[in-house]
Amino acid sequence: MKKPKVLIVTAPGINCEFETFNAFNFLGCVSELVHINALLKKDRKILNYDILAFPGGFSYGDDIAGGTILANKIKKLLPDILKFNKSARPIIGICNGFQVLMKTGVLPFAGAKHQSASLSFNDCGHYIDKWVDLKVNKKSPCIFTKNLPEEIKLPIAHGEGKFVTDTDKTLSKLIDKNLVVLRYSNNPNGSVYDIAGITNERGNVFGLMPHPERYVLKYHHPLWRQTVVKSPHGLEILKNAVEYVKN
Q: Is 211 a catalytic residue?
């Protein structure tokens, strides 16, 4: 069986691309870091890959708002991204990548006429960098969280991670359809309903503020000597996407 090909989109200010690259390669993939300009020039084509990843960082300095400038560029690629999505191939947006997926309209409801949810400034008013406990929705269709335990640990690092919706109706729809995948045990940023990550109805698109690529080895956890896990939770999230493609 061929090794899954992973497209990792980079841009000025992105700073987690190499962790994402190394994590997928550790899982036996062939990863490629591709600058947004190469995609816009059609030097690389999204549909030639098996997994699409938007890594974390501060694209274009997060001018205007987190992920906004990169999202505006990526909107020119939406026809191919929507085809990629329609073919049920895995798409993951981590931190800044999550902001991008929201502001391009890929999440929460692809094809919607307006943006119904976003990620805003943390209630504390400053950047947060810490490890958090997360609750996993076992009823979610998300392929990335298959077989994860009910509670996991991952690091966060963001200034604009507060999940908000335009109306209570949008929030209810996310909850009722089990599209809320991860919730903070102790909400660090003021996200509505403690939301840390969501998926689409098919479950192949996953947007989350925590960083799975930063917990691929047990040694990544600051208390690794006291923390006993069968497999690092970040590794399992990415591994699920790889196994999904292989099967």
A: yes
At 53, list the tokens.
């990843």
Annotation says 95 is catalytic: yes
pLDDT in 10s for each residue of the chain, 247 residues: 689 999 999 999 999 999 999 999 999 999 999 999 999 999 999 999 999 999 999 999 888 888 999 999 999 999 999 999 999 999 999 999 999 999 999 999 987 778 999 999 999 999 999 999 999 999 999 999 999 999 999 999 999 999 999 999 999 999 999 999 999 999 999 999 999 999 999 999 999 999 999 999 999 999 999 887 889 999 999 999 999 999 8
86 CB neighbour count, 10 Å cutoff: 12
Spot the catalytic one: 16, 29, 95, 142.
95
Question: Dihedrals φ, ψ of 154, to 5°?
Answer: -150, 155
Domains of the chain, start order: 5-111+119-246 (3.40.50.880)
DSSP single-letter state for residue 117: E
- Catalytic annotation, pick one of 17, 19, 160, 213: 213
Question: Which of the following is catalytic: 211, 220, 221, 233?
Answer: 211
